Amino acid sequence: MNWLTWSLLSAVFAGLTAILAKVGIKEVDSNLATAVRTAVVLVFAWSVALITQPASAVLGLSKKTWLFLVLSGLATGCSWLCYFRALQLGDASKVAPIDKLSVVFVLILAALFLGESLTWKTALGGTLITAGAVVLAWR
Could you tell me the residue ranges of all domains in the chain? Predict the structure, then answer.
């Protein structure tokens, strides 16, 4: 499978996440719900990792890799906490499009920090994503 297939599967599972989470957090604190979800993700991710890689591969990770994966994990945790709280307070059909503004932030940050091209196509796409999020979240 190529990157596009994996990306589409990611989008499908992210969509399912919003719906399942909205139902699951109905009568529980959003932070507790995030902790439960994170524990499940932790067990699942380690299971997949250990099935596909030897456990010794962890020791081969560089300090730079550790640093950026830890920072990425902290950013993910913050994102999930905010996302679950937003889902608890708002409609999933409004929260999810705003959450997908992350794509626009990725375009900008990738240009600034990774040197990726910010072309007319990425600018147009980012503008359309922003417009779509605003339209979908409009009351």
Answer: 3-99
DSSP string, 71-93: HHHHHHHHHHHHHHHHHHHS-HH
Place of tokens 């560089």: 62
Alpha helices in 25-62 (DSSP H): 30-52
The dihedral through the CA atoms of 98, 103, 109, 111 has a sign that is negative
| Contacts by 44-48, CB closer than 8 A, 24 or more apart | none
- φ and ψ of 40, to 5 deg: -65, -45
The pTM of this model reads 0.86
Residue type, 138: W
Summarised one tens digit per residue, pLDDT across range 69-95 is 999 999 999 999 999 999 999 999 999
The confidence score (pLDDT) of residue 139 equals 77
What separation in angstroms does the CA of 71 have from each of 17, 26, 75, 93?
Answer: 23, 30, 6, 29
Report the largest interatomic distance among the alpha carbons of the chain, rounded to a whole angstrom.
52
